[in-house]
Task: structure prediction
Amino acid sequence: MEQVGLFPVLAVSAALFLLGVIGVLTRRNILIVLMSVELMLNAVNLSFVAFARHHGTLDGHVFAVFVMAVAAAEAGVGLALVILLYRNRHKVDLDDLNLLKG
Amino acid sequence: MFEALLFYTFSVLAVFAGAMVITRRNAASSAIALVASFFCLASMYAMLGAHFVAVIQILVYAGAIMVLFIFVIMVLNLREDNDPGWNLSPRAVLGAGVGGLVGLTVFVGASAARSATFMPADKLDPGFGTIEQIGYTLFSGRYLLPFEVVSALLTVAVVGAVVLAKKEL
Result:
């Protein structure tokens, strides 16, 4: 990877994170919003791993492992919420959930 | 040269698959595109010397988490015709635009590091990225308490998921 350098890796990470942000903000399907969140978490992981390689330390890898554990917890609870929502409303539309909207 | 070519191939594939995730109307297609993106990212991790993280990426992400997603899509029997589509209200579009602007700023900021290179491979610790070295970092000193907190978080998440999704306790 010495010929590639740090910047292209960070650019890929930024592009993936941006796609995730756009997905979260513009999709109404709650499952696809959850998948966009996973995409953002992965983009951050790529940055962690790239900086770990840049500095030659392993702290970035440890953080990536932590992020994966948190992502697993988030996916588990999020999908339980999706099932609960579908059971009550027979829809996966996020715009239905506007009770707390100002 | 070959490595750079591989890296660029996988990065283009990863970004393309990411774009597919947020544009497909069928949630199952999105999930498959996300798996493709995860595999491309795993290969990039391997190229960056993060062998353990690459394996965990495939086992935990492409394996466990995506199976959970696909399982839920199958259970709910979601098809294209019950996809609610896009939220293109001014507020959402503005948010996405501001997000894009912030992303562009970060991108410009990162381009200050355009000349930053990776440490030459022969200067790296020979055990860089192996389970053994990550285990030492994880279990000795600084990261021991966060590790225990993460295990508590996972337990809470499992209990919470069961409580939420079960019809009656």
In short: The first helix of chain B runs from residue 2 to 23. DSSP finds six helices and no strands in chain B. Chain B touches chain A through 92 residues (CB under 8 Å).
